[in-house]
Amino acid sequence: MTLTAPTATIGLDIAAEVAAQLRVDSIRSSTSAGSGHPTSGMSAADLFAVLLTRHLRYDWDDPRSPENDHLILSKGHASPLLYSLFKAAGAISDDELMQGYRRFGQRLQGHPTPALPWVDVATGSLGQGLPDGVGIALAGKYLDKRPYRVWVLCGDSEMAEGSIWEALDKASYYQLANLVTMVDVNRLGQRGATDLGWDLDTYARRAEAFGARVLVVDGHDLNAIDNAMATAADPSGDRPTVILARTIKGRGFSEVEDSNDWHGKPFPPDMAERAIRELGGERHLTVRGPRPEPSSVDGSSPSSGPAARPVTTQPTEPATPARYDLGQKVPTRKAYGDALVALGAQNPRIVALDGEVSNSTYAFEFARAHPGRYFEMFIAEQQMVAAATGLAVRGYRPFASTFAAFLTRAYDFIRMGTVSGVDLCLVGSHAGVEIGPDGPSQMGLEDLAMMRALDGSTVLYPSDATSTVALTQAMAVLPGISYLRTTRGKYPVLYPDGESFPVGGSKTLRSSDQDEVTLVGAGVTLHACLAAADTLAGEGIRARVVDCYSVKPIDSGAIAAAAATTGRIVVAEDHRAEGGLGSAVKDSLVAGGRALPSLVHLAVRGMPGSGSSKEQLAWAGIDGDHIASAARHLVHG
Amino acid sequence: MTLTAPTATIGLDIAAEVAAQLRVDSIRSSTSAGSGHPTSGMSAADLFAVLLTRHLRYDWDDPRSPENDHLILSKGHASPLLYSLFKAAGAISDDELMQGYRRFGQRLQGHPTPALPWVDVATGSLGQGLPDGVGIALAGKYLDKRPYRVWVLCGDSEMAEGSIWEALDKASYYQLANLVTMVDVNRLGQRGATDLGWDLDTYARRAEAFGARVLVVDGHDLNAIDNAMATAADPSGDRPTVILARTIKGRGFSEVEDSNDWHGKPFPPDMAERAIRELGGERHLTVRGPRPEPSSVDGSSPSSGPAARPVTTQPTEPATPARYDLGQKVPTRKAYGDALVALGAQNPRIVALDGEVSNSTYAFEFARAHPGRYFEMFIAEQQMVAAATGLAVRGYRPFASTFAAFLTRAYDFIRMGTVSGVDLCLVGSHAGVEIGPDGPSQMGLEDLAMMRALDGSTVLYPSDATSTVALTQAMAVLPGISYLRTTRGKYPVLYPDGESFPVGGSKTLRSSDQDEVTLVGAGVTLHACLAAADTLAGEGIRARVVDCYSVKPIDSGAIAAAAATTGRIVVAEDHRAEGGLGSAVKDSLVAGGRALPSLVHLAVRGMPGSGSSKEQLAWAGIDGDHIASAARHLVHG
């Protein structure tokens, strides 16, 4: 049977059948896979049935339509429920559900990912689906200006994650009436009761205090759910809606209802059979709920929108990149701001976000030039990265910045960004001990290691304004997670305007046939390498100097050539000794498999305190004097 | 003038003088240093003056006294205020304040750290001081059972961090009436207004909804502050208290009051002079407020408690470590749980925390055996690490566990743990693609890189139950951050009971004089290396097998010997290619500076999906077949 709304709106009697089907299919799929979380979906099956049949505006034949509502399963472990919904919508077959779930090489993974065209973001690390949804809702309201709604199903366990409250805070600040959060309050987590159990009053007070319109329902009363969703979908308000649904885990199968023993366990076949019988047997309904309402946005056809994540590269204004004079002292963070302004003028899909430090990262320059495309995230780095993720889902190219140190706050969100396959440009300022008196809490010292370890990431660390501008431009079309590390202090411009800086390349700033040692730096240590080369030259030691502005991928060719020619390398970085530039150089040398040069790796070891930038670099042993000394020692033995 | 309470309780007239002194000294110290945040302290000076003179029970001559109240400056950038309070308490001299602040080699750093004996935890990454305070309050109420209070000063900007709400959620769940949060609502952040400005009603609703008793005051009305603190200090309730103080940034100097332009800037000398004049000039009061009330805890002398962070190693019960039979299949996560139970029996200062996955990490075994020392943190990994930090401040040895993947959520807290110098044992289960069908969101693939990059960290990755028990025991006395990585599946016990596993060591499981290649593994890949060695032996290739259970520090001697003897190394790891075991091996080889062996590094490249453990390991190219193939290729060339 196939039903389509709104030609004839589907009745709640049908929704009830769909709910039973979702439960049965959640059981069938997980039992067939031998793993999965059926009971976590059974509690929310009524919510999903009413949503699918009567409220979710979605063209299942065109998942990339820009008019579609968005549906995010924040409690990603309830994937059997989501996939059963896809079957009920006719998007996947029963065969795929039964034979593909959690199997190798299949797209119905244990937790949802955008390997499926109806999935916007990967979930499974709890407390991330809602923050991601905030990003999509921001795009809908402020950039796309389309009437789609964002529906997010959260579990009650994940309400303990602070990121949920960052999300609601921002959703109310930005008046995201297009965002509907459904909370499946089944009172049970993985290992027992949640801290609030069925205390819906407390959840309601919290969500209201964070600015949401709260609707509390019995999550198994289809009428109540329907009314709440109708209210939530009313776009006239200025508040996000939170539907708190009191539910029963394992609902529909009396043997497991409200039981603590059945989290994350498929039913054995005999139990599954009893459960399906109790639920009235298998069903194979296909239902199509409301279709998207065509919007009247200029220049966009409602039925054939752009692909979900286009990167529009056509310029709207002539590019006016910043230019700097050689020798002029400019902080790379300032050059980043300048470059971003120009990029924004070139490409209307560039957006920027910052964690309340835009006057330090220089993102404020973009905010001033392109205020409609700047989103202040205040001091909420997790939400900043999640919002960037949601904006990327809608085809925007986000640049998100804060101090490099504080990007560690969002590492789980960045990691999940790689699973989602989104293209995010992250920028960390105030790298290393160079920042001076503020002390170690403000120093990015682990950021290169953290970013290099991500699948498919790009890590860039320019030393001057010209290269910063070029690399910022390069980032705007890089796939996956790209990271730009900027420096606090002012350093001289080394490269003339127009010089090219390919990702994966390097620059050799000093070289001769008589080079006895190679000095490898990036960012602030590149300037120290140049100073060291001058010192060494005065002593008759010729030193090659290589600017490894591309830390990942690294320029293995240049490093191998330097190693072969000079036989000695000093690599200096304003970062911990593990996982950063030195590791990249060493990985490259070992992979090259040729004779190893003598190598000294200067990095930040021990815990810094306060002091001037000069004092800090000297203390860490990464200034020109220490680099020269290391090189001298290598050359003279 | 020196005043001491409670012999004669210090009056609010004196508190007013102290407040003026704190403002003047915040200005003097930051102007003298040429950097710092005077205005961020001036808003909270009245709060600190009343607290110091009339409510903070503290023996300034014995900062390690276990009876002392605790004071945490969560808004760490207001350090001039805190250091001015230390001067007012007579703990530091005016000379140190004027000549030491933010200077190289000095302890009055830009943001507070425990380099100062009156500072419990490093702050400066916002939103962490309160979560840390929850850990100290947990210790006070449930473990120390002493009447000390924990006073935390938060800025209003940091209320945007989700971690603040994780902290209040846990503070109310654990009924921490001994925790008082003061929020300095000066409405201005670094670059402009906060998202809630002076909307104290909304802050109040939020804090109340999260279970706090909320007191709203004019933060410059000493009487109101005094009354609120007296109420907050009343231990009869069961709720944490939040004092919301409406304040003015830069209060006391009319030129900068409520100005957006003076965040994080010291006043130039002429302005400082005008400010000090407006504030009535310099003062050099020394005031001692209430002393701690001796508690009647058994066996503890009120005046000479243990050092702040003792590691008690004396056993209270005979050790009964778990033992396993060779070849028995045991998940290392289970062995961790067993080991922790035994450790808990040996040492009463061992405590455990988990993020609502204790039945997966096996922390539940400790919870069952030692329920009084187990703290369920629900799904709030940031708060889990912060609570562990606070417990460590009070001399307990916390073991905090969750999935390895989800420790990325707490990276900023772990990083700050290194600045605080606390000893934390972190345990990540479900490492790598080995977990099978759950998919990439649940796979720890960046954890080794993240943990290795931390200053002074130790990273351990055992392959069997016996070594897991030994390394868990070793962790309990390691300084700094130590990390144990455990595996989901069952693998055979390789080592007999009683075998020793020194940190920094390795085990060579197969070796002969004819070894042509060395296979290096850890955790699950060690078993794959053994399988590969068997395959290779059948082909007449002798392979050495090294178990690098200690990833940091790594056994450089064993690796150098293997490289020298066999000339060929295959290293395989269930982790990304950057920053993990392979990096550690390569770093070691390069540091050795000898002839480089031929090396193949097998690691997880690309994005996995679902599948069985066997399928995943094969897909990633890190199973026995791939290791054997890589070795064969190296040998036959």
From TrEMBL, chains A, B:
<comment type="subunit">
    <text>Homodimer.</text>
</comment>
<comment type="similarity">
    <text>Belongs to the transketolase family.</text>
</comment>
<dbReference type="Pfam" id="PF02779">
    <property type="entry name" value="Transket_pyr"/>
</dbReference>
<dbReference type="GO" id="GO:0005737">
    <property type="term" value="C:cytoplasm"/>
</dbReference>
<keyword id="KW-0479">Metal-binding</keyword>
<dbReference type="InterPro" id="IPR005474">
    <property type="entry name" value="Transketolase_N"/>
</dbReference>
<keyword id="KW-0460">Magnesium</keyword>
<dbReference type="InterPro" id="IPR005475">
    <property type="entry name" value="Transketolase-like_Pyr-bd"/>
</dbReference>
<dbReference type="InterPro" id="IPR029061">
    <property type="entry name" value="THDP-binding"/>
</dbReference>
<feature type="domain" description="Transketolase-like pyrimidine-binding">
    <location>
        <begin position="330"/>
        <end position="493"/>
    </location>
</feature>
<dbReference type="InterPro" id="IPR051424">
    <property type="entry name" value="Transketolase-like"/>
</dbReference>
<dbReference type="GO" id="GO:0000287">
    <property type="term" value="F:magnesium ion binding"/>
</dbReference>
<dbReference type="InterPro" id="IPR020826">
    <property type="entry name" value="Transketolase_BS"/>
</dbReference>
<keyword id="KW-0106">Calcium</keyword>
<dbReference type="InterPro" id="IPR009014">
    <property type="entry name" value="Transketo_C/PFOR_II"/>
</dbReference>
<keyword id="KW-0786">Thiamine pyrophosphate</keyword>
<dbReference type="InterPro" id="IPR033248">
    <property type="entry name" value="Transketolase_C"/>
</dbReference>
<feature type="compositionally biased region" description="Low complexity">
    <location>
        <begin position="294"/>
        <end position="311"/>
    </location>
</feature>
<dbReference type="GO" id="GO:0030976">
    <property type="term" value="F:thiamine pyrophosphate binding"/>
</dbReference>
<protein>
    <submittedName>
        <fullName>Transketolase</fullName>
    </submittedName>
</protein>
<keyword id="KW-0808">Transferase</keyword>
<dbReference type="GO" id="GO:0004802">
    <property type="term" value="F:transketolase activity"/>
</dbReference>
<dbReference type="Pfam" id="PF02780">
    <property type="entry name" value="Transketolase_C"/>
</dbReference>
<dbReference type="Pfam" id="PF00456">
    <property type="entry name" value="Transketolase_N"/>
</dbReference>
<feature type="region of interest" description="Disordered">
    <location>
        <begin position="281"/>
        <end position="324"/>
    </location>
</feature>
